[in-house]
Amino acid sequence: MRKIIFIVSFLTLFFSVKAQFDTTHVHLTKNQFTVYPMMELAYLELKFKDNNFERGIYSTTLTSRYTTSVGFGMSFYRFGFSFSFQLPYSDIDELKNSKAFNFAGGYSYKRFYGELRYRDYKGFQKADLIHDSIKGDVHVRKDIELKQVGLAMNYFFSRKFNFDANFKNYNIQKKSAASFLVLAGTNFYRIKGSYLIADTNHVASDITYVKDLDVYAIKVAPGGAFSLTYKGLYWSTLLAVGAAFNRNILKGDTRKNIVYQWTPVVEGRSAIGYNSQKWFASLTLNIESDYFFSSEVNLSVMNVFYNLKVGYKFNSKYLGKLEKYL
């Protein structure tokens, strides 16, 4: 145990010392408080497939509508957060009471970036496919709700690349740069409804009549990031591909399955915008894909977010005194 503590302490100290930035490429902002309104367009897709359906393959796709949300965000020094909520509008009557709420809180320490995510969606559109050839009617499922809680930690290897500058618009990326990265984290999904795949257990395998799916995942994904800059304009992209170890709990009326497995993980971000000492504007695309498999049911979850924000940086020597506490 002492050896493990020593090794962990040594690696933490080593990476902390090596985490200083190259200030010829990165301008480190101080004593500024950043605030911004934002608009967000979100899309979430769930795909279920029952592999034991007696007459072939039974699959269900559940999609949120393209949710239009408004929100607010802020950042100061190492800390930042944003949240958005759905506007009460839908061209589908049954989805007018649907909801979407997103929260993200981040904390940066040099080349480390940690983020807490919370998402809550209710109200999906459903389409079925039986035998891979007979397409069912699309209808609304107001009862299905998805909640996600995630915690992720990123480490960027290059001293020339700064996550805060490219995706939080706090610091400034003065010159183009690229970096390898490692993403590690955990995710919890809960998906529930009156039924998820089939509304009767007489047409498919027993576990298809699932009402609740809980997924606990631990993931690691290496990847890369780059930023191209020109006179305050920039384009930045991040991509990580790896694996997760999942504990999946599938629940029906009378049956409960627990499945442990390794699954692929894909996360990507891309941002284009303008960032100066005072003003910034950016359009960001976030994509996350997670997969969960068992011998009976497969599930994939895809989150797609477009985020538009325009903000201003306020100078404050009084807020600067808080830096040593953050």
Give the key terms.
single chain; 326 residues; mainly beta; Lipocalin; globular
Brief overview:
The chain is mainly beta and 326 residues long. Helices cover 8% and strands 63% of the residues.
Description of the structure:
The two termini are 30 Å apart. With 326 residues, this protein is mostly beta strands. A hairpin with a 7-residue loop joins β2 and β3. The protein is globular. The chain has one domain: Lipocalin (Beta Barrel).
Described by its quaternary structure, the protein is: single chain
Q: Write the CATH architecture name.
A: Beta Barrel
Question: What is the percentage of strand-forming residues?
Answer: over 45%
> Low-confidence spans: pLDDT under 50, at least 5 residues?
129-136, 200-205
What is the helix content?
Answer: under 10%
**Record field, number of beta strands:** 16
Number of distinct helices: 3
Give me the strand/helix succession.
HEEEEEEEEEHEEEEEEEH
What is the CATH domain class? Mainly Beta
Question: What secondary-structure arrangement, pairings included, does this model have?
Answer:
Layout: H1 2-18, E1 26-27, E2 32-50, E3 58-63, E4 67-76, E5 79-86, E6 99-109, E7 112-130, E8 134-135, E9 139-156, H2 163-168, E10 172-173, E11 177-192, E12 212-230, E13 233-251, E14 256-275, E15 279-293, E16 297-315, H3 317-320
Antiparallel strand pairs: 1-10, 2-3, 2-4, 2-16, 3-7, 4-5, 5-6, 6-7, 7-8, 7-9, 9-11, 11-12, 12-13, 13-14, 14-15, 15-16
